[in-house]
Structures are given as structure tokens and as C-alpha cells.
Design a protein that fits this description.
The chain is α+β, with helices and mostly antiparallel strands. It has nine helices and 13 strands.
Length: 304
């Protein structure tokens, strides 16, 4: 039977352990493993056959499991989390005193408290040399690691629920963030309202990518918005598409809108006096400019 631990951003690593630990290793237990940061505690997961077959192909580097945490270890883990929260506040205090343009996200101690990692977001590169000196004086005999992460990384670390009511994709299964732009929303007929198409991270929803190919294929079977068409009821202009029923909404000069199948419509090269509100790139009440959201380059750094 294979087991794994999930570290930040949904990366599962197989674990290896001495035979003496066999009876202690169970699904749901907390195990102490050795990572690049040092000794860290993570939940142990039983691995199914599909993941095992995937591992046979890609052969991920396993992590060594030192032991399963005891009751005393779990108390230490809880203490570490409290100390990390206090350390985050202290780091924030130092950063504000230095007037650094950075936002602290989270602090994490290794289990043995030999290293602490501070995650932060910033609009541009931060010179934190003086901050590092402050932290070194405050946290003696502890290695300090300051990591710049993007807005999407920050949300993946903090976790939460999306507008769909489910746990955020970035904390549930997404390992790599694909580029997202407002054209994806336009292609799917979604109004460009920032509050509707942005996630907790303040960036465009990752899920806009999921069904985009479906909408592209369906669009090819229909008539583009803005096309003048001849209908059984006269001349009109296509104003919207019903992707799931494969029907087309046509607006007439008197303002009336009817829905038709494509086979009863015929595109015509005639002037139809029907105004269609264009897909706008604008800022709504939230003050967010759609154009600014299209710049997705630094929303994920992979530095978690």
C-alpha cells in the first residue's frame, strides 16, 4: 500500500519509511517528513491505483517519513502555528516601520523551529535587506526565508470557498495556473462585470478556462452576434446565443427579441437599425478595470 503527503499547492509526494513504522502509518494521520525546508508536518493520504500508475510513469521524488506524530508532537505543532502567527505580526510591524510596499500573507515554522518562511505579495520587487536584519535580530538561531508570491499563490496558501460554494480550485486540485484573460468571458457570453468574473484572489476566475473549448465549438455552429439575419418574422440582428439549446436570439427594430433555431435564419448583407450594447471593458462599482485584469503575468510565481 502506498501513502503520500500533500504539501502547499496540491502537490502530492510519495513517502518512504522504515518497516518499523508500518503499523503506525494510516490515512488521515499527521506525519513528519523531510522537505527542502527541513522537518515539516503534513497529513498522510492513502494513494489509489490511478495515482500509483501515474507515479510509475513520472517517478516523483519521494519524501522520507520520520514518524507519525504523537499527542505531544501534535501539541508542539499547535504551538508552532501560534508562534508563526505572532511572527507574522512582528514581521508586518518591521515592514511597516521600513515603509516597504509588501503585504504579508503567512508565516510557517518547520517542525523543529529551525527555519521560518514568510510569504508576501508585492506589486514590484522589494529590497528587504534591512527587514531581514530586523528579523535576524528578533528570531535568533532561526533561518529566515522571505518568499515573494503572486495573488493566485496567496489565495492557494490561505484557502477558502469560491462563488460556486465549493472549496477553491487552487487549494483543491490546481497545481499550475494557466493564463486567464477577459476574452474567455466574452467568448462564453458572460457579462464583463469584475465582481462576477474575479475570484477571491482579485484575478480572473481560473474556471473560465474549463469550458472555453466547448463554447468555441458551439459558436462555430451558430451565427455570430451582430450579424443581420432574415427570420420568419422579418429582418433583425443577432444579439445573443443560447449555447446549450443551440438557439439564437434576434432583436428587431421595434426592440422585440425572439429566439430561433439556426436553420430558420439566413444571414443577409443589409442594414438593420438595431443597436447592440458592445462588450465593454470598464470599471464597475468595485473600481476594478477589466483591462488591468488581463495582465496576469505576475499573479503566480511558483515560489511557494
Amino acid at each position: 500500500m502506498k501513502f503520500a503527503v500533500r504539501i502547499i499547492k496540491n502537490t502530492f509526494y510519495p513517502v518512504t519509511y522504515e518497516p518499523v513504522l508500518e503499523k503506525w502509518v494510516e490515512h488521515g494521520k499527521i506525519g513528519l517528513v523531510i522537505t527542502e525546508k527541513g522537518e515539516e508536518a503534513f497529513k498522510i493520504f492513502k494513494v489509489n491505483d490511478e495515482i500509483m500508475a501515474h507515479w510509475e510513469k513520472f517517478k516523483p521524488e519521494p519524501l522520507k517519513l520520520i514518524r507519525v506524530l504523537t499527542e505531544d508532537d501534535l501539541k508542539t505543532l499547535a504551538e508552532n502555528k501560534q508562534l508563526a502567527r505572532a511572527a507574522l505580526l512582528k514581521c508586518e510591524e518591521f515592514a511597516n516601520a521600513r515603509k516597504l510596499d509588501m503585504s504579508l500573507t503567512q508565516a510557517r515554522y518547520t517542525f523543529d523551529r529551525k527555519k521560518i518562511t514568510f510569504y508576501y505579495t508585492a506589486p514590484q520587487r522589494v529590497d528587504f535587506r534591512e527587514l531581514l536584519k530586523d528579523l535576524t535580530q528578533e528570531f535568533k538561531r532561526v533561518r529566515i526565508d522571505l518568499r515573494h508570491i503572486g495573488a493566485r499563490d496567496e489565495t492557494a496558501v490561505l484557502e477558502g470557498c469560491g462563488i460556486c460554494g465549493q472549496q477553491l480550485c487552487c487549494c483543491r486540485f490546481l497545481r499550475k495556473f494557466e493564463n486567464v484573460n477577459s476574452k474567455l468571458a466574452k467568448d462564453q457570453g458572460i457579462p464583463l462585470t469584475p465582481s462576477k468574473i474575479t475570484g477571491c484572489c482579485g484575478r480572473l476566475l481560473c474556471c473560465l478556462n474549463y469550458e472555453h473549448e466547448f463554447y468555441k465549438e458551439v459558436t462555430k455552429k451558430l451565427i455570430p452576434v451582430g450579424t443581420a439575419v432574415k427570420t420568419p418574422d422579418g429582418l433583425g440582428k443577432v444579439v445573443s446565443l443560447n449555447y446549450f439549446d443551440l438557439k439564437i436570439n434576434v432583436k428587431f427594430e421595434d426592440g422585440k427579441i425572439n429566439e430561433y433555431r439556426k436553420d430558420v435564419l439566413k444571414p443577409v448583407n443589409e442594414v438593420v437599425n438595431v443597436e447592440i450594447t458592445p462588450d465593454a471593458t470598464y470599471a464597475d462599482d468595485s473600481g476594478i478595470d477589466i483591462k488591468s485584469l488581463d495582465n496576469d503575468r505576475n499573479s503566480s510565481t511558483g515560489n511557494v
